[in-house]
Amino acid sequence: MTTLKDIAQDLVKTVINTDFFEKIKIDATGSEIIVEAMDSDREVILKGTATSPAGEITGSFGLSNLNLLKHIVSDGEFTNIDSSLSVVYKKDTASGEEIPTELAYTNKSKSYINYRFMPQALVPAQPKFIEPTWDVVITPTKSHVQQFGWAASGLSQYEQYFIPRIKDGALKFFIGDDNAASQRGGVVFATDRTERFDGGHKWKIGHIMNVLKLADSTDCTMAFSSKGAIQITVKSGVGSYRYIFPAKVS
Length: 250
Hints:
Blueprint: H1 4-14, E1 24-28, E2 32-38, E3 45-51, E4 59-63, H2 66-73, E5 84-91, E6 98-106, E7 112-116, E8 136-138, H3 142-155, E9 161-167, E10 170-175, E11 185-190, E12 203-204, H4 205-212, E13 219-225, E14 229-235, E15 239-246
Antiparallel strand pairs: 1-2, 1-4, 2-3, 3-15, 5-6, 6-7, 8-13, 9-10, 9-12, 10-11, 13-14, 14-15
Helix pairs in contact: 1-2
């Protein structure tokens, strides 16, 4: 059964550690937790769900001061059965509703930290995402992710963006313009493709690599739309998180 500790660990590992977000919106019911966020530059959108530990957390609130939540989860005693993590509620005087206000953590050694939530009224509004038709859907392999990282690392001081195209039956990531008189390169990211895809859009390499690095320990799929969007779906076993990247606007 999923516990509150599982949820906290999963959010840190799969969402907070990407360092994209300053604030995260949470809507929790008895059966599901909806996770939403957007980075300050509006280049990364997160839409996720996680299995809710029944009865442990309900309500709507925000997460900020994310480094403190990371610090709590990093405690060497966090997973110990004698360390506790619980949600503190406060009754709203106007509505009479029980509002989640903070996480209370006490470890086996009786050290403790209370982590305050953002009130729902202060949580930034999240964008609606109208899902496009995905022209290409793949499951990245570890070797292809490593090759993309290798090429991107060598070219990072010259080029921050890449262009995905299907060429000669392979999905290729071109770093820099393919025929330009400049430092450039590319990698084969998937083979045996029969789709047509050449939208000509650019995406920031660093953003995509941040999420692809999670593929070593999670189930991961990647989708491309000629309308100008890439979606990486990460399934951790506790939650499913969709990272959506709009293309660079020239």
